[in-house]
Structure formats: structure tokens, C-alpha cells
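User: Could you go from structure to sequence for me? I need the amino acid at each position, not a summary. C-alpha cells:
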């Protein structure tokens, strides 16, 4: 039987115009063989924390050059050889073809819809790239590497998995038989340098005076929910709002995957844990929220409520843990309340709807709704006060609304701003008693509109 190098040489002279080129197939085989050979030879060296990234890459490249030399008679040009070595090194040390886009600071999300279809979200817009994996096996190898780093596995018994990269980026993978045309891989990148209040003001998400209003609400220990759809910037907004918490307070954060980056000193960060291979050992968000109540926190910050923990969060807000913050998936402030009602029922208690609504109206003071608009920008579209109950209905009043009536620019960007509605919140007197004075003209729509039109965005 001919050796691999002889088959590659034969493929070089074959007709490359055929749809299923033997040359491509044999080069895939060569790539896989060299990959596994390097992993086998280096072994634990690949996970040696004492070595710098540069030293480790040098060792891998040296091993690859040696391995290529062992394949006698390979018809590779110097450019082919260099490309082959660099691609395999990226597979071994990083995440293969997607390494470059993961290192692009403008890319916020990577979506792999199979080996031949990779999209990215860049500057708020979805774009298809020309990057490709060699085949489904190549993509699967990268997925196995990612999930293996956090002690998880993905196979036909468990074809869906959540994981995260060492830098904190969130990962979701789905493989056969659930993924038709897959595997599918979605990576929500973790921001090493999180956006600040100044950044969001510069992007036009809100105005400086609105930032001061939100800071006053946080310092006044109002319970705040940040709502919005997927990818609308809820976690970024929660980071900014959490930054207003005084550094003298003890803060407990609860998350599925640690994303919050609070700059205060007295912060206790808790992260949920999935079940092990035997289906045991799971620690849920609800378990952690209940545990924080025993940790004497001044503030509880939950990355996102999506189930029965909503009931525990409401009880915490109603039992002395004022100033708590969380996020909820929803399409509007009114939908946020409906979502919370549904999630409370998911806790497994058969509570009357009116009792749930009384809990919600008593616990929640303010809803900040963010949205990702069609132009790719992320804006605060509502700041809404929860006033209380009227009969069986929770009453809301909008304090600030995004003005969509201002239209769009020639380049397709929304010209609207966040404007006051003219209604002064009922909690302003309570804030004043705490020494937090909200300027009267902050809620006057006309002066507010003139101030905003004077801003340079």
C-alpha cells in the first residue's frame, strides 16, 4: 500500500478540477495526522503554565517542522509548508480558523453554522466571513478542545453543552444528531476592558444627566431591573449601573458564567455549576441566591434571572436587601413584569397571581430597558418607574423614552435620543430625604430635549 507522502504526490498530479478532489482529501489526512502526532509527542507540555505563550508556540512549531520532515517526499512548496504549520499550530494552541476573529477587538460574537459558514457580529452588524474549517471533524475537534478545558464533554448522549473560554467568553455548542448541517458553535466574547459610563455616553446610549439620575437611584438603594432582548447589552448596562454602588458596601454577585467586572473592593462573586457526568453536583442560580442571604450582603447583583430564582430575588428585595440589581430577557418594561410572574410560577409554588404581582410591585422600583436597534446600536429606550397596584394591575409610568420620531440619517443611523416624558418619579422625595436631590428640570421634556440636541455624539 502506498505511503501517505506517495498518495499526496499522486494527488498533486491528479485532475484538481474534480468536485471531490483527492488532493484535498489527502491533505486533510496529512493535517489530521500531524496534529495528533504533535499532541502525542508534546502531551503535558501543552498545558505547562510555567511556559509563556511565545515559548509554547515555538516548541509546537519546532515539533511540526520535525514532523513534516519525517514525511519524506511531500510535494510542498515553502508557502504551503509554512501555511500548513501555522494552521496546525493554531489548531493545537488555539481554536483553529476562528483564532484571528476571536482576537479582533471589534468582534463581539462568533457564530459557526457548520464548517463552511462562519458569521461574526462586528460593530453591531452581522457579517459572513470567508473563513472555513477543513471539515466537520476539524470543527468537532475544536469544540472538544473548548469543552474539555472546563471539564465538560459533548457526544451523542449529551449533544448540547455550555462552556466558556479561559478569558471568560461564553460558548454554546450543538452537535449531531441535533445539529443538522453542523456542528454549531456560538461564542459570546468576554470584554477584557468593559465599557464604562463614558463609553456608553459617547456611543449615544444615554445622556450624562440620565447617567447621574441612574447613579442617584443606585445610591438611593432602589431595586432596579435591566431588561432587553438577546444581545441588547443588558450585561454591559448592569456593569455600568453596578459601578455606582458605593465602595463601602459588601456586594454579592451571582451568575451563570462570571461576566460582571465590578471595580469595588468588597465583592463576592459566585458562579453556578452544571451537573457532572453522573448528573450530580449541580449548583443552580437559585441555590446561590438563597445562599447569598446568609452572607450578609449590602447588595445582591444577579447576572440574569431566568427561572425560579426570580421568587428568591423578589423575597430578598422585600426583606431588607434594598438596592439589588438584576437583568431579565424581555421586549418592554411591561413584558418584564409578565416574565417575572411566569418565572415565579416556575419556582414550583402555586401562588395566586395577585400575590405575585403585589410582591413584584413592592420589590421593584425601576426598570431600565435596553434594545439593539436596526442600525446595530444599543440604546436605552425606556426608564420606567413601577408605581404600585391599581386593582389587580401593576401600574407603570415612563420617566424617559427614546424618540424614534426623529428619523434616521442618510447612513441608516437612528437620530433619536432618550427624552424625558415630563413626569417626576414618586420616589424622588424619598431620595431627597437621603440627601440625593434630583434637579427639577431633569424631568422637563423641553429643556431636556434642548440639552440633548446640544450634545456631540
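Assistant: Here is the amino acid at each position, in order:
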Amino acid at each position: 500500500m502506498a505511503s501517505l507522502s506517495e498518495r499526496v504526490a499522486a494527488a498533486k498530479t491528479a485532475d484538481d478540477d474534480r468536485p471531490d478532489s483527492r488532493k484535498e482529501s489527502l491533505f486533510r489526512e496529512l493535517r489530521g495526522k500531524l496534529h495528533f502526532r504533535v499532541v502525542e509527542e508534546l502531551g503535558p507540555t501543552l498545558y505547562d503554565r510555567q511556559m509563556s505563550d511565545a515559548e509554547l508556540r515555538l516548541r509546537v512549531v519546532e515539533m511540526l517542522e520535525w514532523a513534516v520532515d519525517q514525511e519524506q517526499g511531500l510535494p510542498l512548496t515553502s508557502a504551503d509548508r509554512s501555511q500548513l504549520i501555522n494552521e496546525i499550530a493554531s489548531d493545537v494552541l488555539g481554536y483553529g480558523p476562528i483564532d484571528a476573529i476571536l482576537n479582533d477587538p471589534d468582534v463581539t460574537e462568533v457564530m459557526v453554522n457548520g464548517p463552511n459558514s462562519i458569521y461574526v457580529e462586528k460593530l453591531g452588524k452581522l457579517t459572513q466571513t470567508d473563513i472555513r474549517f477543513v471539515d466537520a471533524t476539524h470543527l468537532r475537534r475544536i469544540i472538544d478542545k473548548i469543552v474539555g478545558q472546563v471539564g465538560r464533554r459533548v457526544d451523542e448522549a449529551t449533544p448540547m453543552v455550555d462552556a466558556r473560554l479561559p478569558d471568560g467568553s461564553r460558548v454554546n455548542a450543538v452537535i449531531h444528531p441535533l445539529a443538522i448541517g453542523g456542528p454549531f458553535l456560538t461564542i459570546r466574547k468576554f470584554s477584557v476592558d468593559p465599557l464604562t459610563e463614558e463609553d456608553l455616553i459617547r456611543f449615544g446610549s444615554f445622556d450624562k444627566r440620565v447617567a447621574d439620575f441612574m447613579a442617584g437611584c443606585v445610591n438611593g438603594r432602589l431595586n432596579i431591573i435591566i431588561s432587553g432582548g438577546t444581545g441588547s447589552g443588558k450585561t454591559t448596562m448592569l456593569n455600568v449601573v453596578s459601578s455606582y454602588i458605593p465602595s463601602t458596601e459588601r456586594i454579592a454577585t451571582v451568575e451563570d458564567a462570571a461576566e460582571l467586572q465590578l471595580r469595588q473592593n468588597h465583592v463576592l462573586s459566585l458562579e453556578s455549576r452544571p451537573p457532572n457526568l453522573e448528573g450530580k453536583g449541580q449548583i443552580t442560580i437559585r441555590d446561590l441566591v438563597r445562599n447569598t442571604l446568609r452572607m450578609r450582603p449590602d447588595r445582591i447583583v444577579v447576572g440574569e434571572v431566568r427561572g425560579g430564582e426570580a421568587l428568591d430575588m423578589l423575597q430578598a428585595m422585600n426583606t431588607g436587601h434594598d438596592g439589588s440589581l438584576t437583568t431579565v430577557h424581555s421586549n418592554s418594561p411591561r413584558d418584564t413584569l409578565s416574565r417575572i410572574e411566569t418565572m415565579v410560577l416556575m419556582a414550583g409554588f402555586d401562588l395566586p397571581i395577585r400575590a405575585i404581582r403585589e410582591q413584584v410591585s413592592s420589590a421593584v422600583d425601576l426598570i431600565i430597558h435596553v434594545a439593539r436597534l436596526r442600525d446595530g446600536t444599543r440604546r436605552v429606550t425606556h426608564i420606567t418607574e413601577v408605581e404600585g397596584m391599581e386593582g389587580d394591575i401593576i401600574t407603570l409610568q415612563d420617566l424617559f423614552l427614546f424618540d424614534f420620531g426623529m428619523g434616521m440619517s442618510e447612513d441608516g443611523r437612528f437620530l433619536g435620543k432618550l427624552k424625558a416624558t415630563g413626569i417626576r418619579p414618586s420616589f424622588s422625595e424619598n431620595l431627597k430625604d437621603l440627601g440625593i436631590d434630583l434637579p427639577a428640570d431633569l424631568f422637563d421634556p423641553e429643556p431636556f430635549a434642548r440639552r440633548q440636541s446640544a450634545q456631540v455624539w
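One structural detail worth keeping in mind: DSSP finds 15 helices and 15 strands in the chain.
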